[in-house]
Design brief:
CATH superfamily of the largest domain: Ribonuclease Z/Hydroxyacylglutathione hydrolase-like
Strand order of the largest sheet: 1-2-3-4-5-8
Number of helices: 18
Helix content: 25-40%
Distance between the termini: 36 Å
Number of domains: 2
Bound molecules: fe (ii) ion
CATH architecture of the largest domain: 4-Layer Sandwich
Structural class: alpha+beta
CATH topology of the largest domain: Metallo-beta-lactamase, Chain A
Largest sheet: 6 strands, mixed
Radius of gyration: 25 Å
CATH class of the largest domain: Alpha Beta
Length: 464
């Protein structure tokens, strides 16, 4: 899963910002747009961030407020086919009470009619694509929250508090638990979490088995970004949420499992990272620009293959993990004395996303850098770099010279024999497996597996 915040109200680098939210999500083979901000400026940011709006399969409108909906006009201009799903309760009818008057904060008047052929109204629970769900609020009495937030709707001259029937949660089923997107959470973060939990009671990580207890307090009235000033961990300590923008958040259950935060934010610093994916062919031409030795190229390909395999196991982005593997020894041939340092310079100069640079530095942790692996991708790279060296050496000892008939048992023997491939640092492999929370045997087995899958690319087919 890959998530990019296309626009929000904090500026970053040369990207535009505004009061509005738009988020781009890649999940399995689907490309999804969540909200379009206010002005359509997100479309310009999307271009700068390498997001092709025309490739998007469908859009979702989180709720019927102008700062999420109005900018979608720019989306309809660039994308000629994708529908945008919104709740059946969506109307051009949302107001904020200010003093004695009501200020309009709904979708621009005429918008719903203008784009009627692109808008798809949904009711109840909807599965938009395998593993992608849209859920309405299922909590009674949400108009109390509307009243607290001074949000109203009008019918025949009468004002009533908004019960947020136009708000919905976008939920993804990942191999590591459910991930919820709900832009402003006007209906209350605790309600949303409970609603999703109750909808998917069979999900092992569901919060419904561990319901949030703190349900009182000021935050309920407006956990809408900066209005409340409270963060989700204060509210629902059982979850591992990341606010990846001032105005939105994602929640993933089971705090101990890393993964999503890699793509959207650094939890420690609460800083948004716009993940810029590097295309595989660009990574390859960069690598070969600095690395001509076939053996080193082969090493890079092997590490890439194993990284891809582990990404698949973890339900993470294979492209990102693979490219991180490919580039990890970028500077080794030309600058062995400055290993990792020089690669940092090169990659920074090329404007390569910090996610790759950090991962590259992590593989040298304790050897030539002090950048400790934190994310699952970094820990994996740290572990499998040395291990692929050992596997390669083990293959070369075989009559077949192949990985295809290499068994775990025989690799374990080689691991234990200190004199075999003595340059391979066994401690790093052990330590890395521990970091990953995996048994050494499993790490070895899966690494062999990854190399078997790619035996032709990595040249490990031997004479079989
Ligand atoms: Fe290295
Ligand atoms: Fe390496």
């Amino acid at each position: 899963m890959l998530v990019k915040v296309l626009i929000d109200n904090i500026s970053k680098n040369e990207l535009l910002c505004e009061w509005g939210l738009s988020v781009y999500i890649e999940y399995r083979d689907k490309k999804i747009l969540l909200d379009g901000g206010t002005s359509g400026a997100f479309a310009r940011n999307a271009r700068m961030m390498g997001v092709d709006l025309n490739a998007i399969d469908f859009g979702v409108l989180s709720h019927a407020h102008y700062d999420h909906a109005d900018g979608l006009a720019a989306f309809f201009e660039e994308n000629d086919h994708a529908p945008v799903y919104l709740r059946a309760g969506s109307e051009e009818n949302c107001f904020k009470k200010e003093g004695t008057g009501y200020k309009y904060i709904g979708i621009r008047e005429g918008f719903l009619e203008e784009y009627a052929d692109r808008l798809k109204y949904v009711e109840g629970d909807v599965e938009l694509a395998p593993g992608v769900y849209l859920l309405p609020h299922k909590t009674e009495g949400l108009e109390k929250l509307g009243e607290k937030a001074h949000m109203y709707r009008e019918a025949e001259g009468l004002w009533s508090p908004d019960a947020f029937t136009h708000e919905q949660s976008l939920v993804f089923d990942t191999s590591r638990g459910l991930v919820i997107f709900n832009s402003c959470s006007h209906g209350g973060a605790d309600n949303i979490i409970r609603e999703v939990g109750e909808t998917f009671p069979e999900k092992p990580d569901c919060i419904s088995k561990n319901p949030p207890t703190k349900t009182s307090g000021r935050w309920r009235s407006g956990f809408a970004g900066q209005e409340s000033g409270k963060s989700i961990p204060d509210i629902v300590p059982e979850t591992a949420p990341w606010r990846f923008s001032r105005r939105s958040w994602a929640i993933r259950w089971k705090p101990s499992i890393p993964g999503l935060q890699l793509m959207i934010c650094e939890t420690k610093r609460k800083k948004v990272i716009y993940m810029e994916k590097l295309a595989r062919e660009d990574a390859w031409s960069l690598l070969t620009e600095y690395t001509e030795t076939p053996a080193l190229q082969q090493h890079a390909l092997m590490v890439e293959a194993v990284m891809r395999h582990f990404a698949k196991l973890a339900g993470e982005d294979e492209e990102v993990w693979g490219v991180a593997g490919l580039l990890h020894d970028l500077d080794y041939e030309k600058y062995p004395e400055e290993h990792c340092k020089k690669a940092t310079e090169i990659m920074e100069e090329k404007g390569i996303d910090p996610v790759y640079i950090r991962a590259m530095n992590c593989h040298g942790y304790g050897i030539c850098t002090d950048v400790k692996p934190e994310s699952a991708m970094e820990k994996t790279l740290y572990t499998v770099d040395e291990l692929t060296g050992l596997i390669h050496a083990a293959c070369l000892m075989r009559p077949s010279k192949s990985v295809l008939d290499l068994e775990l048992k025989s690799l374990k023997k080689k691991f234990k024999s200190k004199s075999f491939a003595a340059g391979v640092n066994r401690d790093v492999i052990r330590q890395g497996s521990e970091m990953l929370g995996m048994e050494l045997d499993d790490v070895m087995r899966e690494s062999i597996e990854g190399l078997k899958e790619s035996a032709d690319i990595t040249g490990l087919r031997g004479n079989l």
